[in-house]
Write a structure and sequence with these properties.
2 copies of one chain form a homodimer. Chain A folds into 2 domains: about 100 residues, Phosphorylase Kinase, domain 1, CATH 3.30.200; about 300 residues, Aminoglycoside 3'-phosphotransferase, Chain: A, domain 2. Chain A has 15 helices and 12 strands. The first copy, chain A, has a 5-stranded antiparallel β-sheet, sandwiched between helices. The first copy, chain A, has a 3-stranded antiparallel β-sheet with strand order 8-10-11. Chain A has a two-stranded antiparallel ribbon with strand order 4-5. In chain A, α10 runs antiparallel to α14. Chain A is globular.
């Protein structure tokens, strides 16, 4: 029996998406006269994605399905996630112009978003697996997180508006539950939907499940994830949510958006850069041994953090208008040293959060339900197991010896020491 | 021009409150046949409070006014705060039985709550000013905070229900704004509505406004107040919100309820015990020099904390059912040491939060809009100024040297050293 859906909803097909778009005058004029070409390209876990091209332009249509696409109808999921995706863009869009796709239209009955089609962008993860470099991507994502989080935080937004946002996104519970379970719980317990490179990682998976201090650290971060409303966060900001060219970078797919800890987005991207780093030897070919790509990837760690930190502090200094750290408490020059020290203290806290969440996001990709192509596409099982083991070693350091990490260079040194 | 109010609302009078109650069959039978006596006793800052007695029983009626009673109609305030008060009782009531008044009825159109009339209870603050001891009060309030906060936290409540609560209470913005401004901002800036014992404390008030590190610490705590949803907190848990007899203790007036940091409630009560301690010499009389009351008050500090800490950990060990620290991650005996270490680590964090918020709550009562009768009722100006100065000295230690405080005994030692 198919899952029931609300009246007005039907899942789109290559043909019905044309009728859907043809009924929207703005989109019709953007595409130009028919015929249009349609390609369904959703390769993520959750949605239908259509690329529609006409003689005058192109759009992308992303529609929620009433279940988790990667799991099938046995795992229902509310259609409303597309509401939260477009609501997230509504909150951050003006602040991250050029770093996210432009949204043209949202259809609340069809749970479908019509947005900019990015071309010739590819998914950053795929590009890294192919051995490419993206010179501006780490900086752009750091800048993106700084802007999206600052402008939705209590530093920038009066509490009335902030709490309205908190109330709205608190309803994105189905997707918050996915993160709570798949990211913070499943890898640390026996669970049918878990998998890992077996038998090679059987021992390590058992170690993780039996490691009390590791589980305590994971749970502490999970508690923070559930009980912090520091900013509107993307909620799933890995390299598969970033589309790139050599000169352009866009952050996509914010359906997991919620008010949460900024470090969760920072940690997601950091973890995925580091997983790419550890995976590279497994993708070496005669043409490209990846020996240069590995140091380049580690160089992106300080680039990413500095881009975030510098922009976040600059915005906080110049554009604070929220109820946290009220501007008129620090208006005298004699207050500035304490204010600046407090900004640095805040950055140190965000750095520590990033480290912890990066550890969490790594472990879930190796022992949980959703894995990374970075490792999955390594054909040599021993090489794959080694890459995954190395990533887990660093993740455990992040979680169990966080005091070792206070600068991006500390991360680089530890990663080099392992990989 | 009177403030506009929604249709169906009228502020109650000694006569109309009788008609209001007479229309409620349950209340009518609780009170017995008329005539009933009515006394309006609201001496707080915000509301009308009627004590209504009949031959068979008694009730208390608390009704929102469309403005801040202590300030007049020039300071409007949404009537909806009574909704949040009864919603708070709805969430915590069953968990704090015997420690809060029972709610009998809520009228959403009149913004009026009909509840248990506590008798012969008096406001704890008034009792302490009169020189009384309440042997069980500190333990009871510690127990209350442990129960109310645990059972509304991610430790106890699945995230779906928790986030529903967060969404609901995020609308209590008018009262959240009062706290954000009056508690976390005003004492640290020039503001018309501020006042203090002048000229005696003029210098200290100026010092506070010019103290960059103090303002940074206050703002850090204000940021936490705005961006933590650790539990449903009372939001105004000072000794004026506690009613006592020698054997019974009830927590009242949760209209500032919100999802926030547990330490905010802990710190409010601690600060008010300590302010009572510093104020006692100012209330000394020939009959009662208060020399014994002071050490008794300090003894309540460890009693309060231990009652909170022990109950909180016991509930967490026995009744955790939330998405933070998932129970099945720590079910093996080999996991227990790490889990217990994590509980202690959490308590240490809550203790640190308590210390910080206690500092904040002290400073706002001495330099802000709303003052404490503990100090206000000291007739000798020099004695009052000295008591307030001592309280501020401890508050500054709490905010600027928090590392000195890791146990309740550290608080006692510091208070003795000052007072």
């Amino acid at each position: 029996m198919p899952l029931s859906t609300p009246p007005g909803y039907r899942s789109l097909s290559d043909t019905s998406v044309v009728d859907f778009l043809a009924a929207l005058p703005d989109i019709r004029s953007r595409l130009g006269s028919q015929p249009w070409t349609v390609r369904e390209v959703g390769d993520g876990n959750l949605n239908l994605v259509f690329l529609v091209n006409g003689p005058a332009g192109a759009v992308c249509v992303k529609q929620s399905l009433p279940y988790v696409r990667a799991a099938g109808e046995s795992w229902p999921l509310p259609l409303e996630r597309s509401y939260f995706e477009q609501a997230y863009y509504h909150h951050v869009g003006e602040h991250v112009k050029g770093l996210a796709p432009e949204v043209y239209h949202y259809d609340p009955a069809m749970f479908a978003i019509v947005m900019e089609q990015l071309s010739p962008h590819i998914i950053m993860r795929r590009g890294l697996i192919a051995g490419n470099r993206y010179p501006d991507a780490a900086r752009a994502v750091g800048e993106y997180i700084a802007r999206a989080s600052f402008f939705t935080s209590d530093l920038a937004v009066p509490l009335d508006k902030k709490f309205d946002g908190v109330a709205d996104f608190a309803r994105n519970q189905a997707l918050i539950r996915i993160t709570a379970e798949l990211v913070f719980a499943d890898p640390y317990r026996v669970m049918d939907r878990n998998r890992w490179t077996s038998p090679e990682l059987d021992g390590l998976a058992a170690d993780v499940r039996a490691d009390g201090p590791l589980k305590a650290a994971a749970s502490r971060l999970g508690h923070k994830f559930l009980s912090s409303t520091e900013a509107l966060i993307h909620g799933d900001l890995h390299t598969g949510s970033v589309m790139v060219t050599q000169t352009d970078t866009r952050v996509m797919d914010p359906e997991f958006a919620m008010y949460g800890p900024i470090g969760f987005d920072l940690g997601a991207f950091l973890a995925n850069i580091l997983m790419s780093y550890f995976s590279q030897p497994g993708h070496a070919t005669a043409d490209n041994d990846r020996r240069d790509l590995q140091p380049w990837l580690l160089e992106q760690v300080p680039v990413f953090w500095q881009a975030f930190a510098e922009r976040f502090v600059q915005l906080w200094s110049d554009l604070s208008n929220g109820d946290a750290y009220p501007k008129n408490l620090f208006s005298a020059p004699s207050d500035w040293p304490a204010f600046e020290a407090e900004q640095q203290r805040t950055l140190a806290r965000l750095f520590a959060d990033m480290i912890g969440f990066a550890g969490i996001k790594t472990i879930r990709r190796i022992f949980g339900f959703a894995h990374n192509a970075d490792f999955e596409l390594i054909e040599d099982r021993a090489a794959r197991a080694k890459a995954e083991t190395n990533a887990v070693r660093l993740a455990r350091l992040f979680l169990l010896e966080p005091e070792r990490f206070t600068t991006p260079e500390d991360i680089v040194v530890a990663a080099k020491g392992i990989g």
